[in-house]
Amino acid sequence: MRTTIELDDDTEAEVQRLRREENRGVSEAVNELIRRGMLRQRHREPFVPTTHELGLKIDVSNIADTLDYLEGPESR
Q: pTM of the entire structure?
């Protein structure tokens, strides 16, 4: 596929660095950097939220009332 893209300064610098270090063309360097980014996303650890027992029983069916209860009405 042939297309035109505009690179930000930092991404252009990374493309140029890869071209110099590995003697690659622009298309090869851009494709390699895209592939590296795609691989990182596949190997992410699942997000596990940290929770703590507060001992409170809060009805969260009305979000505004819940926020007022937790943060106080002056937080608006």
A: 0.51
38 touches 49 (CB < 8 A): no
- Domain that includes residue 14, residue range: 1-50
How do the pLDDT tens digits run along the chain, 76 residues long? 888 999 999 999 999 999 999 999 999 999 999 998 887 766 677 889 998 887 877 787 888 888 888 887 777 6
Phi and psi at residue 73, to the nearest 5° = -65, -20
The token pair at 38 is 């795609």
Q: Which residues contact 75 (CB under 8 A, 6 or more apart)?
A: 67
Whether 28 is covered by a domain: the verdict is: yes
21 found inside a domain? yes
